[in-house]
């Protein structure tokens, strides 16, 4: 390989990667003017490589290149420029155009840096990046309200509240209430209550149902307040039932449970009163 050919390759490398000074450009043009067509093809190949670097660096123009990568490339470019300037001065005073060791090392180092840059850029633009963002969101209670309390929880709440009465059930002489016991809890201020039963006979809702009646001292005894229809489906007869009074109860005097047809009655005939609980006073 001739010295001119070696020098031409060095200048082509520098032209593609970092650019040439005016003196170096003139030197390269003079060498290539005398060179065969193959050297011109080589020059075009180096130019294509440089263009590939530029295109790759802007392929993701919508995304910002990582700051660490930019900083590293800028540092390598400054080092290469310093090396190129130093070598250019040395070359102008040297009678031989062959590259020095430092010049060759700087060129090879820059080519390696460019290759690493392309690999890093390819990984940066092609690899999927998963970003997990966590954020605390305040959700008002009226959007997702808590579940309503169970009958047992409501009973305990009422028992802890001032003004709540707790009355024991008294069983009548009826097969359904034989051995039954329990209590009724009622809070007049809230118009809420709960019934607890133990040992009450299991019923068939297609044949009969239980119904609560609340006798109000301020109303005619012929028309007690309907407290709701309920069933007992536990084999033990242990059940807690919330009270759902159809109209306000001003002053409860007596709570009574009757056996009625499916769906309950509007006005009970009171043929089967199985449990009663009398209010105090």
Task: Report what the structure shows.
- This protein has 281 residues and is of the alpha+beta class.
- The protein folds into 2 domains: 3-126, no CATH class; 157-278, Immunoglobulin-like (Sandwich).
- Helices cover 40% and strands 20% of the residues.
- It contains 6 helices and 9 strands.
- The strands form 2 sheets. The protein has a 5-stranded antiparallel beta sheet with strand order 2-9-8-5-6, with no helix packed on it. It has a 4-stranded antiparallel beta sheet with strand order 1-3-4-7, covered by helices on one side.
- β3 (181-187) and β4 (192-198) form a beta hairpin.
- The longest helix is centred in the N-terminal third of the chain and has 27 residues, at 67-93.
- It starts with a helix and ends with a strand.
- 19% of the residues are buried.
